[in-house]
Amino acid sequence: MTISERDRLESSIETTFLNRMSPLGVLCMKAEGLGKGWPDRILISHDARVAFVELKKKGKKPEPAQKGVHRKLRSRGFSVFLVDCIADIDDVAEWVKYA
Hints:
By secondary structure, this protein is an alpha+beta fold. The protein has one domain (about 5-99): Trna Endonuclease, Chain: A, domain 1 (3-Layer(aba) Sandwich), CATH 3.40.1350. The protein has helices at about 5-20, 65-75, 85-99, and strands at about 25-30, 40-45, 50-55, 80-85. It has a 4-stranded mixed beta sheet with strand order 1-2-3-4. β2 and β3 (about 50-55) form a beta hairpin. It is globular and about 35 Å long. The termini are far apart.
């Protein structure tokens, strides 16, 4: 698989994710410039809860630096979601609506 094919698959997950989050009224910011290992998206719910989302191609796992950041965020009480399929997107939507 070429880099272009891999990126297209991950970007497809991201597009679907963003389309699903938009009608829920959640702020979904791209996490850029935060350093190595940070999740791709920062979510802020309508009731001021914050979560982080790592978007991956189906079946791909986080790199060691990402796992370390995820662990630190969770230890501080934040939710961190790994999204690589529609079911994972549904889990995040449930967090937005009901958590």
